[in-house]
Amino acid sequence: MSSSHLHKIVLVPVLLVLGMLVVVAHPATAMARFHEHEHDHDEPAVVVVLEASPETQELIDRICFQVEEYGFCNQAFNENLPSPTTDIVGLTRITIDLATLNATHTLDFVQRLLVNTTDPGQKSALEACENGYSIVMRSFQDADVAFNMNDYRSVAKYEYVTPRAEGSCVLNIPPFNEELAERNREMRILITMSLVSVLTLISTQV
């Protein structure tokens, strides 16, 4: 995709999408967190980071400047590029994969917390998290199927329900779990990244 063509892309407004999310600014964190929770005892992974082409980086910037945290978003894309010239289709693929991974791992984390929770208030809150993340995980799994069929409008349809589902996971009863709060923050960003990406992809096909 040429740089001149990129400037012709009409980005779909995402104020509605962002309005569905509780936007809170946080400092950037390393993308290694996606994996370290689940593989604490594994051998350290070797990450090969490809340098995005100017055209691909322009696309990444167009997406990431519309999400809660540019640094997190930019790092997530750049650490997962299959090619330096990845297009909007490939970037959308990355967001679905990362969101599915994060939702699956966070659901497992919540379920492990539930097993060890006896406080009725905490248990009720964690059950709401479990239900919310089950919806998020299934929605991105369905989005993945639609993506593989090049049905990008259905991808967006499946993803539209995820902000509200993720937002239902609120632990406001002490003791607060900082790791779950961080996982929620990452999930919120990934959901926005995926929605912005797929809406941008759809806009190029009109």
How are the secondary structure elements laid out?
Elements: H1 3-6, H2 15-19, H3 33-36, H4 54-64, H5 70-78, H6 88-115, H7 120-148, H8 152-159, H9 162-167, H10 178-203
Report on this structure.
The structure is a single chain. By secondary structure, this protein is mainly alpha-helical. It has one domain (49-203): Invertase/pectin methylesterase inhibitor family protein (Butyryl-CoA Dehydrogenase, subunit A, domain 3, Up-down Bundle). Helices cover 63% and strands 0% of the residues. It has 10 helices and no strands. The longest helix has 29 residues, at 120-148. It is elongated, with a radius of gyration of 17 Å. The model is unreliable at 1-33 and 35-41 (pLDDT under 50).
Features:
elongated; disordered N terminus; 0% strand; mainly alpha; Butyryl-CoA Dehydrogenase, subunit A, domain 3; single chain; 63% helix; 206 residues
- Specify the CATH class: Mainly Alpha
Shape designation: elongated
How many helices? The count is 10
CATH superfamily: Invertase/pectin methylesterase inhibitor family protein
What is the annotated CATH architecture?
Answer: Up-down Bundle
What profile does the largest beta sheet have? none
Radius of gyration over C-alpha positions, nearest whole angstrom: 17 Å
| Percent in strands | under 5%
What's the rounded overall pLDDT mean? 82
Give the count of structural domains: 1
Helicity, as a percent range: 55-70%
Q: SSE string, helix = H, strand = E?
A: HHHHHHHHHH
Could you list the spans in which at least 5 consecutive residues all have pLDDT below 50?
1-33, 35-41
Enter the CATH topology name: Butyryl-CoA Dehydrogenase, subunit A, domain 3
> N-to-C terminal Cα separation, in Å?
16 Å
Quantity of strands, as a count: 0
Structural class: mainly alpha
